[in-house]
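If your schedule permits, I should be very grateful for your opinion on a structural question. I would ask you to consider whether the tokens describe a fold that such a sequence might reasonably adopt. Thank you for your consideration; the sequence and its tokens are set out here.
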Amino acid sequence: MSEINDNKTKPAEMKPAESDASDKRQAAEHAPNEGMTLITDTRGVKHEVDTAAWDRPGHFAVQRDENERTTRIEGWLSPTHEERGTADAALQRDVVKQGGQAEMHGGHLIAHSLGGPGVESHGEEIARANLVPMTERMNNSYVGNHEAAIGKYIEENPDKQFYMQVDVRHLDAIGATIVTHRVFERDQASGKISKVDGLSECDTWTSANPSDTRAKAVKAATGHDGHKFSTPTDKGTLRSIHGPD
């Protein structure tokens, strides 16, 4: 696999022969897995992305575990204001019904509003992979607030392109599922890639049922306006309220 590095670098300097072995070891450490590509952000940090999804905007790639459950979904974002179709709503109900969790919501990993895959746009298989059961409050308040913050940031940066990875950890021993969002932005003029820290690496326990909405919990814990806390301009993200009490 080739490595994509959209940042400008100086030409490589000649190195003595004795450093060849070290160079090979370093290259092996950074070699991407099959079907994956390495990208390098403006801090010099390397990230592994699905090659097909990275090279083909509109395509979403899914990784699954041995039980065929989604462990990662990723692709380029394309926000939309169009309403979800009836087939998508039916699939959301079916996902929780099949899992014996009819009281839960079928929550999107990549939101429809951000251009995530649905039945009409990408077919049932990929649309189903984009759904996990969530409690109503977690889906509508916590995840919904995070999705709104991402959408707002995208609208405010029309000169950028945005790529999202969503990781899913299934903790069967305690019956919990943790979802982690990761957002990258690519400057259309320079091609430079950055991870949007304020919108990334925030763990959401989808099975948790907080006693307060996210806005109220953030306000009580930090004094910040809960509707504005999860943005790149704030210092970090509040992880403690996403887990069980």
Q: What stands out?
A: The helical segments are 20-29, 51-55, 86-98, 119-122, 124-129, 136-156, 214-222. The chain has seven helices and eleven strands.
